[in-house]
Amino acid sequence: MSYWENEFVGILDYIDSLFVRYRNMEFIADVIREASLLRKRVPILPGIVAMCLGSVTKEIKPEEIEQAQKYLFVLEEEEIYGVAEKVSGDSVSVSGKKIGKNMIIKTVKINASTLEEIWPTLVYEVKER
Amino acid sequence: MKINKGDIYLAKGEIKVEIKSGSFELIGAIFKSGEINIPEGKQMPFICKEAGELVPSNEKFEKLDHNTIPENWYAIAERIAKENIKRVVILGEVDTGKSFFSIFLANRLTAMNKRTGIIDSDTGQSDIGAPGTIGFGIFDKHYFALPDVPVQKQYFIGNHSPGGLFTVFLAGIAKIAAYAEKHTDCFIVNTTGWTHGDGARCLKKAKLEIVDPDLAILMQRDSELEHLTAHMPDEKIVRLSVSRKATPTSQTVRKELREKISRRCFAGSRKIALPFSGFKFERVFLGSGKPLETKENEILYAEKLPAWEGHVIIFKEDTTPAKAGEIAASYRARYCRPSYLEKTFVGLADADGFAIAVGSVEKADFLKKELTVVTDLETGREGEIKFVQMGSLRYSSDGNEAGFILPSAI
Questions:
Q1: pLDDT < 70 positions in chain B
Q2: pLDDT at B247
Q3: A127–B255: do the CB atoms touch at under 8 Å?
Q4: What is B71-248's CATH number, 3.40.50.300, 3.30.420.40, 3.40.50.720, 3.40.50.2000?
Q5: Mind listing the domains of chain A with CATH numbers?
Q6: Are strands B2-3 and B43-56 parallel, antiparallel or unpaired?
Q7: Does the distance separating the beta carbons of B335 and A119 come in below 8 Å?
Q8: For a 10 Å CB count at each end of chain B, is N or C smaller?
Q9: Residue B402 phi/psi, 5° resolution?
Q10: Which of B198, B251, B325 sits opposite A119 (nearest CB)?
Q11: DSSP string, B149-201
């Protein structure tokens, strides 16, 4: 037995966990894309990237769903990922499909500001090579 | 402000306190004059040994009813001196007073005529030496702040955390410890507060193996550090309860403290031009291959690296990132444009691999084959630079942190 000398494994573990927690591949791809962006922002500190990734998916309450924002809606039988086109008191329309809020088990949003929130002192402009 | 013998006051940073008269114990040493600057986030008790006068710069100066320095601290210093203990490592989480205790110990040992040094391995808050370095200083007299201790040697790490740079960090510890071993009666290794998780366990265990301390001092609230010294016999371990006065420092305050150090380091800096022929690049692939003629107009400079490592390509500045990426892929090359190297934090190392100064790259000119660096290097020491060690951070020429460099980019 040994320890992980490289904290990149934390990022890989997080990606592994996505496949256990979610079924929607488009949503998983967007979360991984966010991981990749974080890695570009703090390339030398994968431990910080892994830490930020823990907060990249954010569960929100049905009353917090906003129009024009992209969400993953976890229902009993399926997961629908898309922009909330229309939001009313008891339903939300996504990709032309109306979902009753009482059918939603969980609503998840991708938070693209985790570095700003968790480690604001490491927020810098990323220079192109 | 008149102070009576036996009175104890606590100064809370940021504050300046001038000793006008009398005699005061500060961090284990007696001072009869001087001006003490206590930075934001730090505290210092003043114990009056002979009545005198102090002038604090603001009201963050309060009277205490007891000495905040525990009695057993004095006993540890006595034991180290009496038993001729040479290698001491101080371990503790962040904000547990490790730096304060190191100064206390060094001051007490210096008072007992022990030639004492401190290795400051907290690269995030380099108190001895330049930022991003492991620094080593010897107490030639008493000091109340580590930044005042003259730097004997420093080893460039190039980042404010050892995370991602374990081998560089451990090589630095080994080199500095070997130097300290030869030049002191006793040296104290002040460590980072990174004590938990895989990386921390790896690094701390390796550091303890390298230094092989005669005494490990655990500054802990409960038993949270015991895993680090489980391999050591109990007689080589001293456990200290963390002072209630140790105050937590926020991320922002830590960054401010770091930048204060780097701004001070860059304050008296100047530009120097270093021809590529006069030094070797370190910690990059650049410079380790054979120059290569290429047909692409976008390429300013190219090298073929040994074995299967591919190439290094420096593109002309007006090459688009997309075009650079496309050509680089066809060569399996590590690449960048010259401007990508601007502001790179660098160590200017001597023939022994110790940093004689740090700097920030102002320009990498691949036509003139010259690197312009903003540095605080003393005039006349340019000839000692044998290696330019490329760091992982960017610093602006005024010493503010300005981002990261992608590892292995070139």
A1: 243-248
A2: 63
A3: no
A4: 3.40.50.300
A5: 1-56+113-129 (no CATH), 57-110 (2.30.30)
A6: antiparallel
A7: no
A8: N
A9: -135, 20
A10: B251
A11: SPEEEEEE--SSS-TT-HHHHHHHHHHHHHHHHHH-SEEEEE--S--SSHHHH
> Token match 């490990």: residue?
B216
Q: Count A/B contacts: CB-CB distance under 8 Å.
A: 74
Residue B160 buriedness (CB in 10 A; 0-12 / 13-18 / 19+): buried
Minimum Cα–Cα distance from A43: chain B residue? B406
pLDDT at B244: 58
A57: left (phi over 0), alpha (psi -120 to 50) or beta: beta
Q: Please enumerate, as own/partner, the contacts of A1-6 that have beta carbons within 8 Å and a separation of 24 or more.
A: A3/B198, A3/B199, A3/B201, A3/B202, A4/B198, A4/B199, A4/B202, A5/B166, A5/B198, A5/B199, A5/B202, A6/A46, A6/B164
Are residues A3 and B199, on separate chains, in Cβ contact within 8 Å?
yes
d(CA B134, CA B128): 8
Give dist(CA A91, CA A99) in Å, integer.
5
Instruction: Give the per-residue pLDDT at B257.
Output: 77
Strand partners, B238: B217
Facing B404 at nearest CB: one of A119, A121, A124: A124
Distance from CA of B403 to the nearest CA of A (A): 5
Q: Does A4 touch chain B (CB under 8 A)?
A: yes
Provide the chain B residues 227-256 that lie in CB contact (below 8 A) with chain A: 251-252, 254-255
| CA-wise closest residue to B131 among B274, B264, B270, B271 | B264
**For residue B404, what are the β-bridge partners?**
B393
ipTM rounded to 2 decimals: 0.76
Model pLDDT, residue A1: 57
Report the greatest alpha carbon distance in chain A: 54
Determine how β-strand B186-190 pairs with β-strand B370-375.
unpaired
Contact map slice: B 79-98 vs A, CB within 8 A:
none
CB of B304 within 8 Å of a chain A CB? The answer is no
Query: How far is B96 from B219, CA to CA, in rounded Å?
Result: 7
d(CA B235, CA B325) in angstroms, rounded, equals 58
- CA–CA gap between residue B104 and residue B112 (Å, rounded): 13
CB pair distance less than 8 Å for B403 and A125: yes
Residue in A closest to B403 by C-alpha? A124
Cα separation, A24 vs A30, in Å, equals 10
A46 interfaces chain B, CB cutoff of 8 Å: yes
Contacts of B254 in chain A (CB under 8 A): 121
Provide CB contacts within 8 A for B81, sequence distance 6+: B108, B109, B112, B114
Q: Indicate the domain borders of chain B.
A: 2-64, 71-248, 268-404
B340 CB within 8 Å of a chain A CB? yes
Task: Give pLDDT, residue B237.
Answer: 98
Taking the Cβ of residue B48 and every Cβ of chain A, the question of whether any pair is shorter than 8 Å is answered with no
User: Is the CA virtual torsion B394, B397, B399, B400 positive or negative?
Assistant: negative
B70 touches chain A (CB under 8 A): no
